[in-house]
């Protein structure tokens, strides 16, 4: 210490600065070695939410931002489930905030006996606090963990709560988890006028974006209205001056009809509702002439996008009932129909309401209650068997379609085996056109699916042979949306992709056999390239959706232009082109018409080098809407496709 003090006085400033840094480094290292009780940090109140927000809302991006709205809305829906709320209004305000208002009972305002503050303040500032744990208040609830509204408070720079109870209107202001004012009375209301109004401004220090998307909210609120027949939900966007009302008295039957609106259906929706062991089970089923399976599961109105025990129970029962009925009627004499056969062309909604749901994670994407599988299995078996006996004409249509599906699938399997035997003579069973990588561990490997033989040749020369594999395509692949599985799985190009990826499809799909961590679609930046990209995404969404859900599917972004001034500058959009040209003052500009025009060096530098390339990960925001978009864009409904293009052409700069 004396040495440092002496040097501070006598040495030059730069050397002093270096020695002081050294002193601090040694001091910090000593402290790190002295790990004791003083190093154990306790996060008080809602500090934990602000410290690790993704643990509670999934992410701090666009999804997490909108999850805040869903958490507030779920509280209002809980009031509806308890039969105390009939109206919910969500407003995107001009100042960037969102308001959620309901006509439920209103959050209690009396003093909490344990914390000696108003109960609403406890609900807004304490994790795991709320009426969800009191079965007298909520027998069924989506907001099970009691962290929703307090998380919203913690992650908002400002939050206002207004409550109508007992003829009075109360208000309190919060910021980043703390109460900024005391609860006060700001007015009067009718004695029977009750409800809660939450307005919050998300914290830009937490979120990468604080701009709410009308489409995001529209999709979720429509789902909630479908799942709660008779509940009116209004979405109002003051920024876009747009208002929409969701009110469906037909519930799940209307939901299935809405999903299948672009499809050729076989029959009217099948619907049944039963209750067993305090669990309410609602199911609606409708088959269409298509080939895709769409099963959507909900628990206490929460969309369980990863499924769970309720979906497993439904699938088991459906397969059993249809096999039993087909054998009973003599149309199935040998063997059994597979689950894949039974679900081809099926659209189904499985919605359950349960007192004690066990979700995997706070974002509630998968149900884990083991007892639910048996309950759903039992109810679906009984109700569907009864329906088929009472409606033989519908049962006959369904069974006939499934038998044809089974025959087609058997033919497809034979065709697939023929291609596999053909591939067995090249590269140890892999497609002959595949240039595989030397690394056999999937964790660090990538498969580029490349448009065209020319671009495929450049990519093979450009790639890192250790961990990048190249599979060139010859022209456009089959549109699987309009093709039967037997035709799709007889296509050599599709079989080559399936073989190269390794997972199989349908019931044979096994994620553990995935040969590459990233599967990257690389097409030309023109109309044909976009079409091929869409055909490939349709294939993955219909045949390998788990790869999208698992985050394995990507799209490469090749540059549109090269600007040459002293060195090459690559730009990826017209907007970027204008900015770069203004900045560097260049006028010799090259427009790339296709990947094949690039040299292998250019292709590596711009599109394949992990350090410099741009790629987009493909994910499913909403499976219901994704199904509708693929059906409409790639299916047979020409009028719906024309209408969609007309309405959205301005976003793609199309001249129609």
Description of the molecule:
By secondary structure, the protein is of the alpha+beta class. Among the domains are: 2-33, no CATH class; 50-246, Histidine kinase-like ATPase, C-terminal domain (Heat Shock Protein 90), CATH 3.30.565.10; 252-410, 2-Layer Sandwich (Ribosomal Protein S5, domain 2), CATH 3.30.230.10. The strands form four sheets. Strands 1, 2, 3, 4, 5, 6, 7, 8 and 9 form a nine-stranded mixed β-sheet that branches. Strands 10-11-14-12-13 form a five-stranded mixed β-sheet, sandwiched between helices. The longest helix is centred in the middle third of the chain and has 32 residues, at 392-423. 39% of the residues are buried. Mean pLDDT is 84; it is low at 1-11 and 35-43.
Number of helices: 22
The overall pLDDT, averaged over residues, is: 84
- The proportion of residues in beta strands is 15-25%
Q: Which structural class should the secondary elements be placed in? A: alpha+beta
Find the CATH topology of the domain at 50-246.
Answer: Heat Shock Protein 90
Low-pLDDT residue spans: 1-11, 35-43
Residues in helix, %: 25-40%
- The top-level CATH class of the domain at 50-246 is Alpha Beta
Please identify which CATH superfamily of the domain at 50-246 we are dealing with: Histidine kinase-like ATPase, C-terminal domain
Oligomer, anyone?
single chain
Largest sheet: 9 strands, mixed
Radius of gyration: 29 Å
The coarse silhouette is globular
How far apart are the termini? 79 Å
């Amino acid at each position: 210490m004396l040495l440092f003090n002496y040097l501070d006085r006598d040495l030059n400033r730069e050397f002093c600065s270096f020695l002081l840094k050294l002193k601090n480094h040694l001091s910090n290292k000593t402290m790190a070695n002295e790990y004791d009780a003083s190093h154990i940090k306790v996060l008080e109140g809602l500090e934990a939410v602000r410290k690790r927000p993704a643990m509670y809302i999934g992410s701090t991006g666009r999804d997490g931002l909108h999850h805040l709205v869903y958490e507030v809305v779920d509280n209002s829906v809980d009031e509806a489930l308890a039969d105390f709320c009939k109206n919910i209004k969500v407003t995107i305000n001009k100042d960037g905030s969102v308001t959620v208002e309901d006509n439920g009972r209103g959050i209690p305002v009396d003093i909490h006996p344990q914390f000696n503050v108003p109960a609403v303040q406890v609900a807004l500032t304490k994790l795991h606090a709320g009426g969800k744990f009191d079965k007298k208040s909520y027998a069924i609830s989506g907001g099970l963990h009691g962290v929703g509204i307090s998380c919203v408070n913690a992650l908002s720079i400002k939050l206002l709560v207004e409550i109508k109870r007992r003829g009075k209107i109360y208000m309190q202001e919060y910021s980043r988890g703390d109460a900024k004012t005391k609860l006060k009375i700001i007015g009067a209301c009718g004695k029977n006028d009750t409800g809660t109004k939450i307005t919050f401004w998300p914290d830009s220090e937490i979120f990468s974006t604080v701009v709410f998307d009308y489409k995001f909210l529209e999709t979720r609120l429509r789902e909630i209205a479908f799942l709660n027949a008779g509940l009116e939900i209004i979405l109002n966007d003051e920024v876009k001056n747009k208002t929409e009302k969701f009110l469906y008295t037909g519930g799940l039957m209307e939901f299935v009809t809405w999903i299948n609106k672009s499809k050729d259906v076989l029959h009217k929706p099948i619907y049944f509702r039963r209750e067993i062991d305090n669990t309410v089970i609602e199911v609606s089923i409708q088959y269409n002439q298509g080939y895709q399976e769409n099963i959507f599961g909900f628990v206490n109105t929460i969309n369980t996008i990863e499924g769970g025990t309720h979906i497993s129970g439904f699938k088991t029962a459906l397969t059993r009932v249809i096999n039993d009925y087909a054998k009973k009627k003599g149309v199935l004499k040998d063997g059994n129909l597979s689950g894949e056969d039974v679900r081809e062309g099926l659209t189904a909604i499985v919605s359950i309401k349960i007192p004690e749901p066990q979700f995997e994670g706070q974002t509630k994407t998968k149900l884990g209650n083991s007892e639910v599988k048996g309950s759903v299995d039992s109810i679906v078996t009984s109700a569907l068997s009864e329906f088929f006996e009472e409606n033989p004409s519908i049962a006959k249509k369904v069974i006939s379609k499934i038998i044809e599906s089974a025959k087609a699938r058997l033919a497809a399997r034979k065709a697939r085996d023929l291609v596999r035997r053909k591939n067995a003579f090249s590269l140890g069973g892999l497609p002959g056109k595949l240039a595989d990588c030397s690394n056999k561990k999937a964790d660090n490997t990538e498969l580029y699916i490349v448009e065209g033989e020319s671009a495929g040749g450049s990519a093979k020369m450009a790639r890192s042979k250790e961990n990048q594999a190249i599979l060139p395509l010859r022209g456009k692949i089959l549109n699987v949306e309009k093709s039967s599985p037997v035709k799709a799985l007889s296509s050599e190009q599709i079989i080559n992709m399936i073989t190269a990826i390794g997972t199989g499809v349908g019931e044979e799909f096994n994620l553990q056999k995935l040969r590459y961590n990233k599967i990257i679609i690389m097409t030309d930046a023109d109309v044909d390239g976009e079409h091929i990209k869409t055909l490939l995404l349709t294939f993955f969404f219909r045949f390998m959706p788990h790869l999208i859900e698992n985050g394995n599917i990507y799209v490469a972004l090749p540059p549109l232009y090269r600007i040459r001034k002293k060195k090459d500058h690559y730009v990826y959009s017209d907007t970027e082109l204008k900015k770069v040209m203004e900045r560097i003052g260049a006028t010799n500009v090259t427009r790339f018409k296709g990947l094949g025009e690039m040299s292998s060096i250019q292709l590596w530098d711009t599109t394949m080098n992990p350090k410099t390339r741009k790629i987009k990960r493909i994910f499913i925001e909403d499976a219901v809407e994704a199904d509708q978009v693929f059906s409409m864009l790639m299916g047979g409904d020409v009028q719906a496709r024309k209408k969609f293009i007309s309405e959205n052409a301005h976003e793609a700069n199309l001249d129609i």
